[in-house]
Amino acid sequence: MNRSIPIAFTFLLFTLLILWNQQTPADTRWPTYRRDQTRNGISPLQGGMSVAPKVLWSVDLGGRQTTAEQIQFSDLDGDSVEELLRVGRNYIACELLPGQEQWRIDDLPNPKIIGIYDFNRRGRQAILIESNDFRQTKSMVIDGHSGQAFELYQRQSVFGYRYRMANFLRDESGQQLMVVWDGWGNPGQGQQLHLYLWQFDALSNTPKQLLSIHGSGNIFGAQPLIADLEGDDSDELILKRIATNVTPRQPNLIFIGGISQSDIDSIHQVIDQVRSSLPEVEFLLATGAFGTVDPRNPEAIGRVYSFF
């Protein structure tokens, strides 16, 4: 009987020791939600509200409560007061700051404002936008004062795309918009280059298309580069494709590399169409793999320089 007491006492101590080791350490007791070793703990905290919350006061700040909009401020009509442009999922709208809607254009899939420009420097802004229905991208210009929209062009299967604003017309004030893009055409057409030039009315921003050129050939990633090469305060244009290098070597001197005869043949059809639309435009083409052009040479001076 006396021997059984120590054995029972030893068994009791061993059991208490096991139970003590199985307890959670103090530093992980609170909070236990995702804090224990197996990351499956349950927080001992419980919350709830016996009375539902209610609005005590509110202030109406005006405007629509819309979550999917982007806004932009700009003085669109030249009155020194900014207007508010709202761009939604399928619309663009213009409002006065107090909230009155001036105009709205609907049915524009995924519209995006590309830029706001005063082409004629008279304070009447033109809004250049794009909409994309995931089949093609439509480019438009909107008169900021009236909200009248004009479609410029559409593009799809695009490889390269650039647009520039510059004064291409020697006897005209203001700027024009030039767009150059290339992409895969319809079956049998191959790669195509598209070149557009627009002039905008000073009173309504109505576009007038001056050039609409389309040519097929080995033309990829064409870019328009604009500079006043002649020093006559009128910009000239250099067209270059993705593999062409145009590097200034010294003042008024351009070095052209990466030119091939096949590229030149591809662009000739574009040049012929430009000449038929604007007879005053002259061209200078490099004929070899490398070449230099000095615009100070009377024979080299032209409205458009095209290197491919």
Describe the structure.
- It contains two helices and 18 strands.
- It has 308 residues and is mainly β.
- Among the domains are: 109-239, Lipocalin (Beta Barrel), CATH 2.40.128; 241-307, no CATH class.
- The longest helix is centred in the first third of the chain and has 18 residues, at 4-21.
Features:
mainly beta; Lipocalin; 308 residues; single chain; 2 helices; 4-stranded antiparallel sheet; elongated
How would a crystallographer describe the biggest sheet?
A: 4 strands, antiparallel
The helix fraction, in percent, is 10-25%
Uncertain residue segments: 26-36, 244-266, 280-308
Q: Cα distance, first to last residue?
A: 111 Å
Strand order of the largest sheet: 1-2-3-4
The CATH topology of the domain at 109-239 is given as Lipocalin
Named at the architecture level, the CATH assignment of the domain at 109-239 is: Beta Barrel
Secondary-structure map with pairings?
Blueprint: H1 4-21, E1 70-74, E2 83-87, E3 92-95, E4 101-105, E5 112-117, E6 126-132, E7 137-143, E8 149-155, E9 158-166, E10 176-184, E11 191-200, E12 207-216, E13 223-227, E14 236-240, E15 245-250, E16 253-257, H2 261-277, E17 291-293, E18 304-306
Parallel strand pairs: 14-18
Antiparallel strand pairs: 1-2, 2-3, 3-4, 5-6, 6-7, 7-8, 9-10, 10-11, 11-12, 13-14, 15-16, 16-17
